Structure formats: C-alpha cells, structure tokens
Amino acid sequence: MRVEPTPSTTTTPPTSDSPTPDGSTESVPPTAPAEPADSSQVAELADVAAGLPGSIVRRSTDGSLVVSAPDGSDGVTWSAREDGVASQPTWSADGSQLAWTVLGPNGVALALAQIDAGPDATIVIPVSTPIFYYSWSPSGDWLAGLRNSASGLELTMVDVESQSLRVVGPGQPFFTDWNSDDALVAAIGGTILADVPASETESPSQRALQSPLGVFQAPIVLGNDDVIVTLRRGDQNDVVRLRGSEATTIASAEGPVAMSIDPLGERLAVLVAPDDEPELISFQTTPLLESGRVSIIDLRTGDVEIRPETNTVAINWSPTGDKLAMLEATNLTMSWLFAEPGAVAERSAQFIPSREFITAYVPFADQYDRSSTWWSPDGEAFVFAGSINGQEGIWIDRLTDGLGPAFLAPGDIAFWSN
Q1: CATH number for 147
Q2: What is the distance between the alpha carbons of residues 119 and 55, in angstroms, rounded to a whole number?
C-alpha cells in the first residue's frame, strides 16, 4: 500500500493531455488566467469536513490518483505518477470499486480497484486506445466505457469478475445509462436507442423510435426502467418518456436540453440552452418556459417550476434529492448554486475552474450526471476543482454551516463516493 506523500504545491497540469468524452486529445488552453477569482471566505478544512461520510478521489496536479477521507486523512495513492497519468476516475454505485484510465510510458491501460483490497491488488488491463468515459452497472459487476476506434466512438463493456472486454460496437455520438437488471440503454449515432444485455450470449435489441434522437442524447432510466430521452421533431427537441412501445411527450424545447433526474425518479430538471433571441418552450400543460433557464418538472403531477437563475451550464441533484446544484458561468469565473425546489438558491464561492473540469466534464455534464457525483452521500457537502483567491486545487463546501469552501489538496478533478 502506498501512503500519500505530503501534497506538492506545484500547479502545473500533467504534460500528457487527458482524452475528453468526445474522444479528442487536443490540447486546450486554459479558459481563464490563473489569478484570484474574488475575495471569497475560505474556511478551515477541519471545520468543514468534520464527520462527513464517504471518500473522495482526486487527481493530483502531477497526474497521480489519491483517495482520502473528506478531511484529507487516510490518503492513499492508487496510481502514482511513475505509473503514468491517471484520468477519468469513476466510483462504482456502492463506493467499493474504482475505475480509471492510465496513460503510461508503456501504453494505455484500464485500472480496476477494490478499495478494501488496497492499491497493490489493482488490476491493470492493457487497452489499445484510452477509455475516456466510464459508467458502472448498478450491481458493480459490469463497467461500460467509451473509446475511439477507426469507425468512430466505440462502446466497450467489461466483465469485472473475469476481466474480459466485450466490444459492443461503434457509434457517434454514444450516450448510455443502466437498467436495473444491468442491461445498458445506449443512444447511438443520433438515431438508435438500444438495450445492450450484460450477458455476452445475448444480442442488443433496438427500440422503435418515431423520430431521431434530440441534440442532447443522454438517456435517463427510471426505477421502473422507463426511459426519458429527447427526440428531434421538426425544429424542436421533445423530452419524451418511453414505456415499452408507448411514448409520452413531457416537454418541448426550441434549443438543446440537458437533463438531471432526482434519486427518487420523481423530479426532472431540464436545462435549455439559451438562444440569441430567447424562444419559448411549450409543455403539454399551460405553462410557457423561457429558454436559458432550468425548469423542474414533477413527473407525478406535471407541475413545472421555472428557476430564476440564468447563465447555468450544468445541473446535478443531491443524493438525497432535496437540492439541485446548478453551475453558473459568469465571465471568467463559475459558482455552484444550490437550491431546494421553490426556494432561493445558496451560492458557493466564485472560482476559476480547472482545465480538466471545464474541458472534459462541463460539456458532457448530463452524461456524467448518470455516473459520477460531486455531492457527499448525505447531501450536505460538495467537492469541486478550481482556483479561489489564487489557490488552485480541490475544495469542499459544506452547505449547512455557512463557513464557505475549504481547501482539501492540490488537484484538478475530484468526485465523492456514494
């Protein structure tokens, strides 16, 4: 077992660029200069992180991967810099397993770890091209990943027990979510919605769609295995609930949409991309909603709440389902807003986002919403990567104490275990 060394104060990003979820490895310059975001209050980590549950995985600025308690204690390095640059760390649903990609001097590999077994038991599986997005099945027995191939993006499924890789097929773009029985629901190429069984002996089956998939195509599987997708109908993107062969339109939008479902599957948050000239989106019920806003739809009653916040670029429900996190972008800085439905949002500190966060995660936030979380398991705290008052790294904000964010350690991306 490697024990985490004293954190370095170096803020230089890894020399090897991490692949992004669209398959690109092109170097992208930082979005904003490395200067203080504002004079936001910074709290002591011991005060903010005391008693918070779960573990946090973070990528250090040298490309190593570290897992620690929220207060920074018990830090263990799971992928050291000499092993190669780590990317895409992803927790299993129960927090017992971790997957990531290693970009090393001897090639590319998929790493699988059982947290209880320690770093020395990490399984390293060589792959031909980097996997740039991971998603665990509900049981933790399967892992889905996306990577580049000669024919476009390629979906690969990993049997965790046998460590075997199964190539399902290519598609561009490719978005996924899981059924309760570990079957994968895959939106492929803008036209296909397929069910991919976990079993290697069963073939994928295609769902009948009356229209092409919408501009944002990340599907959402509900607890009863209904699927919510967007369909392109004329000039609109319709948010549609699929139950067997029955399709029910929930909402229509003029622009692209991103969606996030609460843990109970009862409230759907819909973020509509703003237009140069704001359009209206029409629900089947009477409310008319402006684009560029977040709308929360109660799937039980059809009631719609239009959030007043603007400039939102990503949304993410808390594990307890009582708060919605909304990422606001203003000029060169960002802030997380946290709101209970119908209540005024609480604002976290302004920060300059890390390059990894702004290039690899924000553009695909609705897909990561189904596979990773920045929330603590009790929904009381949030972890994010960026620069506050000139200090770059990983920050924890406990929403219930009013103390402000606390600095955890250097790094450019972090996720909380469930």
Answers
A1: 2.130.10.120
A2: 15
Hey, what are 125's tokens?
């599986």
Q: In sequence order, what DSSP letters do the residues of 201-266 get, joined into one string?
A: TS--EEEP-SS-B-SS---EE-TTS-EEEEEEETTEEEEEEEETTEEEEEEEESS-EEEEE-TTS-
Confidence of residue 171 (pLDDT cuts 50, 70, 90): confident
- Is residue 363 in a domain? yes
Task: Flag whether 173 is in a domain.
Answer: yes
114 is a domain residue: yes
The pLDDT of residue 158 is above 70: yes
Other residues' Cβ atoms within 10 Å of the Cβ of residue 71: 18
CB 327 within 8 A of CB 312: yes
Give the mean pLDDT of 82-110: 93
Cα–Cα distance measured from residue 111 to residue 55, given in angstroms and rounded to the nearest whole number: 18
Residue type present at position 184: L
H/E stretch holding 196 = strand 192-196
- pLDDT mean over 389-418: 94
pLDDT tens sequence across 285-339: 433 456 788 999 999 998 999 999 989 999 999 999 999 999 999 888 999 999 9
As a whole number of angstroms, the distance between CA 411 and CA 290 comes to 37
pTM for the whole structure: 0.86
Contact by Cβ (8 Å): 145, 159: no
Q: Which residue range(s) make up the domain with 349?
A: 45-416
Q: If we measure between CA atoms, which residue out of 371, 229, 237 comes closest to residue 291?
A: 237
Two tokens, residue 157: 């499924």
149, amino acid identity: S
Q: What is the pLDDT of residue 32?
A: 39
67 pLDDT more than 80: yes
The first and second tokens of residue 102, run together, are 């290693």
Across 139-164, b (16+ Cβ under 10 Å) vs e yields ebebbbbbbbeeeebbbbbbebeeee
* Count of H-run helices and E-run strands, the chain: 3, 34
Backbone angles phi, psi at 324, to 5 degrees: -115, 125
What would the two tokens of residue 288 be? 């008319």
Residue pointed to by tokens 């060394």: 5
